[in-house]
Specification:
The complex is a heterodimer of chains A (357) and B (292). By secondary structure, chain A is of the alpha+beta class. Chain A contains 8 helices and 21 strands. In chain B, 72% of the residues lie in helices and 0% in strands. Chain B has 292 residues and is an all-alpha fold.
């Protein structure tokens, strides 16, 4: 059964068309991440689901019930806001209990639920404090506590980690993933951070300009992007794009290098294409060239060590590409090396439409 | 070692001295002088200016017209202030949403507050006029027969008329201040409350009111003080009449000082007002939590 079903959803802000007809089906218990660059409509979509924005067209069903015109409080949802939105004049305990009191829960039940939520989030010692006395990470825990204390069908997260520093963000990400495993609830999570999306999601819904560009399991999107946009958005460092010309069996780069692409069908010889190659699929040449790999010479232009790995910038076919190599494979800029390109993982795109061929 | 030039540390005091002196001259001196006058026997009828000590203050307690004027003032304050507050709050909520022509409507609504109260009062006197005023005429259309309500004379109608004018003129003040305060309430907090299932009253009580309270308390205090000193509107409408039925404390002081020329007695009334307002203010500021 699906907990959320969106059909042909549109949202206009005056003349601005923010959401342009989205269909989405979220099965029970799934962790869905809405991801995309700023202005892609992901937050607007989430606010429409929550009922904080009126929809211009289309329907929203939550738990099998049409809630398109229902008030937020009648939608059976809980939400965590980007800026936490804690109630500043209530203690942590009352913040968490607020929704239960509004829904007229018995005092004993409130007591029980608040302490269980506090225990799950390790904020039991903070219950008597006020939001202004908490650190950013603690506030975020309280905001999450306020959401999970209720039995909602749908839990919405609007960029909950973007106000935290990097270290805390990693910790909270683990925490949220653990919560989802423990609670098994349906969660919808908005972020612009592709790493958050990759690590948290059962399913990623990648939005662009108010439309779904592609949706599926994180690895599916990573390995089989349908468009150049998806290929470029997911993965860090970014996928390399090199302009090339299609040949019968592969592509020819601007400097004349020809690369055979195994299993690549549908190429029209002579047509302009873009070759996409992830930095992770480029290695320093070993003893033998593996099947489906191509060996090319290269001169290192720039090195960015990240610890165990190093990001090397080097020229390929008239473009500058980044290769993620093992830390000690290369030593300094100017070094002449040979690299192996794993062409079984390469994608070829149409430069006009951006569609993967 | 070179000698360091020490600027005169006291120089800054000289810079503010003229302003302080001026403030003392126009503020503190009249206060003290009128306090002295209130202990004397000055009036414009004879030349006796000897000290009477607490005579004027003793007279205050026996002066029933004074206590009635105080009661009238409190009545107007007690009725007009809550109306202005609630009406202003309701209007502020109404204009919180984005809507076409919002700026224009807000500007139009604020107009009454810009008008001088004495002019507003005089205008309303004409509007309330029993024979030529449009108010009776319009009421007549609804009643289906000529209405001849004596708004500024009939003892049962005169307070509604005064309070109506007062509310008309000063609700926009509350509206504007509360609109600014409400606009500053973090929207995501009220949204979170709405998702949490809270209805208007609960959201207002626990989230909005605590946030706007410092501003709202000041607005209440300012309007409360203004209302306690109300003069212009009442003077223009009724001059305290019929009889002394609508005489406020300010009107009574004015009559004593500038119609009866009881200078020392008026000074004593003024000090009674200062005393009452000081007590109320100090109490209110503490009670409203404006000073921690």
């Amino acid at each position: 059964m699906s907990d959320l079903k969106i059909s042909n959803l549109h949202k206009h802000y005056g003349g601005f068309h923010a959401v342009k007809g989205i269909d989405l089906d979220v099965p029970s218990g799934e962790f869905t991440v809405l991801v995309g660059p700023s202005g892609c409509g992901k937050s607007t979509l989430l606010r429409c689901i929550a009922g904080l924005e009126e929809t211009s067209q289309g329907t929203i069903e939550i738990g099998g019930r049409d809630v398109t015109y229902a008030r937020p409080r009648d939608r059976d949802i809980a939400m965590v806001f980007q800026n936490y939105a804690l109630y500043p004049y209530l203690s942590v305990k009352e913040n968490i209990a607020f929704g239960l009191r509004a829904r007229k829960f018995a005092e004993a039940e409130i007591e029980k639920r608040v302490s269980r939520a506090a225990e799950m989030l390790a904020i039991g010692h903070l219950l008597q404090r006020f939001p202004r006395e908490l650190s950013g990470g603690q506030r975020q825990r309280v905001a999450i506590g306020r959401a999970i204390v209720r039995d909602a069908i749908l839990y919405l997260f609007d960029e909950p980690l973007s106000n935290l520093d990097a270290q805390l963000r990693d910790d909270m990400r683990v925490e949220i993933k653990r919560l989802h495993n423990e609670l098994g609830r349906t969660m919808i999570y908005v972020t612009h951070d592709q790493i958050e999306a990759m690590t948290l999601a059962d399913r990623i819904v990648l939005l662009r300009d108010g439309l779904i560009e592609q949706q599926g399991a994180p690895l599916d999107l990573f390995e089989r992007p349908k468009t150049r946009f998806v290929a470029g958005f997911l993965g860090s460092p970014k996928m390399n794009f090199v302009d090339a010309t299609a040949t019968r069996t592969g592509v020819k780069l601007a400097d004349g290098t020809t690369l055979d692409l195994p299993g690549q069908k549908g190429l029209k010889a002579g047509a302009a294409v873009v070759l996409g190659l992830r930095p992770q699929f480029i290695t320093v040449a070993g003893k033998t060239v593996a099947k489906g790999h191509a060996r090319v010479p290269a001169v290192i232009e720039l090195l960015q060590p990240t610890g165990s790995r190093v990001q090397a910038t080097l020229p390929l076919g008239g473009a500058s590409i980044v290769a993620e190599l093992a830390a000690h494979d290369v030593s300094k800029p100017g070094e002449k090396i040979h690299i192996d390109l794993d062409l079984t993982r390469a994608v070829v795109m149409d430069p006009q439409s951006g569609q993967v061929i | 070692m070179t000698a360091t030039v020490h600027p005169d540390r006291n120089f800054k005091y000289w810079l503010v001295a003229p302003a302080i002196f001026l403030l003392l001259l126009i503020g503190l001196f009249p206060l003290i002088y009128s306090l002295i006058v209130s202990f004397m026997r000055i009036d414009m009828m004879d030349t006796d200016t000897s000290f009477a000590w607490f005579y004027n203050y003793k007279t205050l307690f026996k002066d029933s017209r004074l206590w009635w004027s105080l009661a009238h003032t409190l009545l107007i304050t007690a009725v007009a202030l809550p109306i202005e507050l609630l009406l202003g709050l309701a209007m502020a909520y109404l204009f919180l949403e984005k809507m076409p022509g919002r700026q224009v409507f807000i500007s139009l609504l604020v107009l009454p507050t810009i008008i001088s109260p004495i002019v507003a009062g005089a205008t309303w006197r004409l509007l309330f006029d029993n024979r030529y005023g449009p108010i009776n005429q319009i009421l007549g259309w609804f009643a289906g027969e000529p209405v001849n309500a004596l708004w500024t004379i009939n003892p049962t109608l005169v307070y509604p008329a005064i309070i109506f004018c007062e509310v008309w003129q000063w609700t926009p003040f509350m509206f504007l201040i509360l609109l600014a305060a409400l606009s500053n309430v973090d929207k995501s907090q009220t949204e979170a409350a709405e998702i949490d299932g809270a209805r208007f009253i609960r959201t207002f009580r626990y989230i909005v009111l605590p946030a706007i309270w410092p501003v709202m308390a000041i607005a209440i205090l300012i309007r409360g003080l203004d209302l306690f000193r109300i003069f212009d509107i009442v003077w223009a409408l009724t001059q305290g009449g019929p009889g002394t039925k609508t005489e406020t404390i300010s009107i009574y002081a004015y009559v004593q000082g500038f119609k009866q020329f009881e200078t020392s007695y008026t000074a004593a009334i003024a000090f009674l007002v200062v005393f009452i307002l000081t007590v109320v203010c100090v109490w209110a500021i503490r009670r409203m939590g404006l000073v921690k």
